[in-house]
Amino acid sequence: MRIVLRASLLTVFAATMVGCHSGESASPAVVETMQARVVQSQQQQVPLNIHSTGTVHARETAIVSAQVVGRIQQVLVREGDSVRAGQTLAVLDDAALRASVDQAQAGVKAAQQQQAAAQTDAKLAASTLDRYRQLQAEKSVSPQEMDEVAQRAAAASARLEAVRSQTDAARAQETGAHTMLGYTHLVAPFAGVVTARMADPGTLASPGVPLLQVDQAGALQLQATVDESAIATVHKGMKVQVAIDGASSANITGTVAEIDPAADPASHSFTVKIDLPSSGQLRAGMYGTTEFANGVRQAIVIPRSAVVSRGSLVCAYVLDAQGIAQLRYLTLGAAQGDLVEVLSGVSPGEQLVDDPADRDIAGKRIEVQR
User: How wide is the angle at C-alpha 134 spanned by C-alphas 129 and 136, nearest 5°?
Assistant: First the structure.
């Protein structure tokens, strides 16, 4: 009996408590309201661009090397020096070549002396032939004597021609010796800047071994690589936007100047050379990026001012049907001026809180600020 009575009392107590609570009404949660500016996501056409990277180069670059074997006596420039066209950059030991010039000049003198002697002999033989012809007309010489004189004149004339050829060969040898001597002075092929120095005095220079590098003065080029699948959209004279690391100017407009006719078989890409405007901020070797226009596409964009960062994540406050701000995580694409493309997280036509800054407004009702 005690167990049954205790259970009955518990039943009565529970019923009493239910009766008490059933008479109370549940009060709705209060949602905080705040004012804020609101913007809207929209769908619009955005450029479809091909991104490419490259390095800044001079339009012309010369690798200066020796054309003769010789030990370097002087290197007259260093990296960063400006040079003019024809300026001497380095000097090689020219003792052996000077000896060759002296020898060639001596050969020219000897040939000239032999030519003078041959000319005298030829002139004398020709005069003798003329006199014998007069005597022959008077029938004062025999035919045999006439033949001997004529043959001596012809031989003298042939020797003169041979000596003249030898003289010409000696002069050519002298010219060649002077040319080889000139190769001991390495000069700048054009006005520019020395960008590399690979040798010092005392080094043995050989043909084809780089000693100096000179970049042509003036405007520079960005040499970018474009994949073979997109090269059809690039053409000579095309205007492109270029961004150079280290240059403060954000908008650099370049012009496609040259497209390599053959692709690199390893990377399946083409080298595109883009002329850059003259700027004191640009230097050869800088890294740059560029974009080639390849039509348009549909994209969802929002103002960049509506984007906030929460740690390493990118977010925006999106209003639901009741006007309450909900924090959404976004995946962004390329920026287009004051707008930024949204790849995921927002649909077209949704309202977003503009410039939320560091305020935490998730779950708050937004009253549009006029």
Answer: 90
Same-domain check for residues 261 and 116 = no
CA distance linking residue 310 with residue 102, whole number of Å: 83
Per DSSP, helices labelled H in the chain are: 2-22, 95-137, 143-182
**What sign does the dihedral 295-53-79-206 (CA atoms) show?**
negative
Tell me the residue ranges of DSSP E strands in 238-303: 239-244, 252-259, 269-275, 287-303
Q: 177 and 136 in one domain?
A: yes
Q: Is residue 154 included in any domain, yes or no?
A: yes
Identity of residue 336? Q
Domain end (from 166, 182, 198): 182
pLDDT in tens, 82-124: 999 999 999 999 998 999 999 999 999 999 999 999 999 999 9
What three-state secondary structure class fits 268?
coil
- CATH number at 289 reads 2.40.30.170
Q: What is the distance of C-alpha 120 from the center of its chain? A: 67
Range of the domain at 237: 51-58+217-294
**Phi and psi at residue 199, to the nearest 5°:** -150, 155
pLDDT at 19 over 80: no
**What is the token pair recorded at 330?**
């976004």
The total domain count for the chain is 4
Q: Note if the pTM is more than 0.70.
A: no
200 domain residue, yes or no:
yes
Q: Please indicate, yes or no, whether residues 359 and 343 belong to a single structural domain of this protein.
A: yes
| Final residue before a domain boundary, out of 173, 198, 215 | 215
For residue 125, what are the CA distances in angstroms to 81, 150, 151?
66, 8, 9
State how far the Cα of 325 lies from the Cα of 353, in Å rounded to an integer: 8
Q: How far apart are CA 44 and CA 300, in angstroms?
A: 6
The tokens of 152 are what?
């001596």
| Terminal C-alpha separation, the chain | 75
Reduced to 3 states (helix: H, G, I; strand: E, B; else coil), residue 344 is strand
